[in-house]
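== Fold encoding ==
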Amino acid sequence: TISGAQFISNTALGNINSANGASNICYGGGLETDANTILVNTDFISNTVKCGYDVRGGGLWAGNVAQIQGGAFEGNRTEGTSPSPYGAVYGGGLHADGVLVITDTRFIRNIGVSPSAYDAPQGGALSGLGNTTITGALFQENIAKYGGAAYFRYTSATISNTQFISNSTNSIGGAIGQYAASITVYNSKFIGNSASANGGATFALSHSAIGSSNSKFVNTLFVNNTAGDGAVFFNRDSSSLSTIDFQYTTIAASTLQGSAVALRTGTPSSMSLKDSIVVNYPNALNADVSGRST
């Protein structure tokens, strides 16, 4: 257990590869831990992890169960420097390989960068490969190519009473990216998130080879999110059944936008919109699907 600590302006450069003199693997700019970890009111500020193509956790890399209560991740950075088709640049603020529980924590202005399309940064604030629970958090002004605030891969996440504000990506998933991952969001807010391509608030990818991404939003507010397509949600589903469910949700824009929700799939998928409000979108749903919408 670590309580009341601060990790400020640390840098991890990784281990030097004797074959080419380069450092290709580096984890945890502020802290790298393989142990079960509890962090209480602990801050990670302006830490950096920088090396070749396997780069994880600008502030924190957690390889086992991690519980984070309070505290902040602010101004942390993951940076990949060497293109590789096997690369990964994960979690500008935090990357977790195991179970992750976050309560009342702030993630502000964290970023992931890379010169390569191969190892494009995933999760400006956090990326998770294990089951994740987030309660009462704030994600604001985080940046990555996939999932400006958060990116979930091969896992599931439950998010409640959390705000995603002004997170961005120059590609897909302004706030959240899903890769064969399922999320359930309750009583939360997505405000002013943006993606230059698809999914201003959320982007979900499914495929038979990797699994499905299911998404459920309950009593959640989406306001002024923007994207090239799917200002609130974009689902890309090729040959894997996925479900998308909006309940008691408000989707609104202050100026006229394109589609709120975009579905692009060649196989059966289902979407439901129940007791919800959509305002200032000429297309509430832009669907190219062989499934059903209700």
Summary: The chain has no helices and 43 strands. Residues 205 and 236 are 5 Å apart (CA to CA). The first strand starts at residue 2 and ends at 3.
